[in-house]
Amino acid sequence: MATRTVTIASSHGLHARPAKLFAEAAKNSGLDVTVAKGDGKPVNAASILGVISLGANTGDEVTLSVSGDGEDAVLDELTAMLESDQDA
């Protein structure tokens, strides 16, 4: 399992649009991906409702965990999404 802590860069946090894009990318990876905010319980990153329920705002740190073949590449892709402003 590959894990990384990432800082949310979207100017309005993980609201509907960036959460949808992130959840779709996690789902399309075909791997098990979870995301957690702080010490909170990890949620399924492929679930837009799960991602929105984190309440992650700009500057918050989340922990991504990916398991399966190619996990490092998926982790890199998802990290890049969270570290860019999806609202721009």
UniProtKB/TrEMBL annotation:
Locations listed in the record: Cytoplasm
NCBIfam families with a match to the protein in the record: PTS_HPr_family
Matching SUPFAM superfamilies: HPr-like
Keyword set, alphabetical order: Cytoplasm, Phosphotransferase system
All residue ranges annotated as the HPr domain in the record: 1-88
Transmembrane segments: none
PROSITE patterns per record: PTS_HPR_DOM
InterPro entries linked: HPr, HPr-like, HPr-like_sf
GO biological process terms, semicolon-separated: phosphoenolpyruvate-dependent sugar phosphotransferase system
Chief localization: cytoplasm
Keyword set includes Cytoplasm: yes
Protein name in UniProt: Phosphotransferase
Species in which this protein is naturally found: Microbacterium faecale
GO cellular component, one term: cytoplasm
A Pfam family of this chain: PTS-HPr
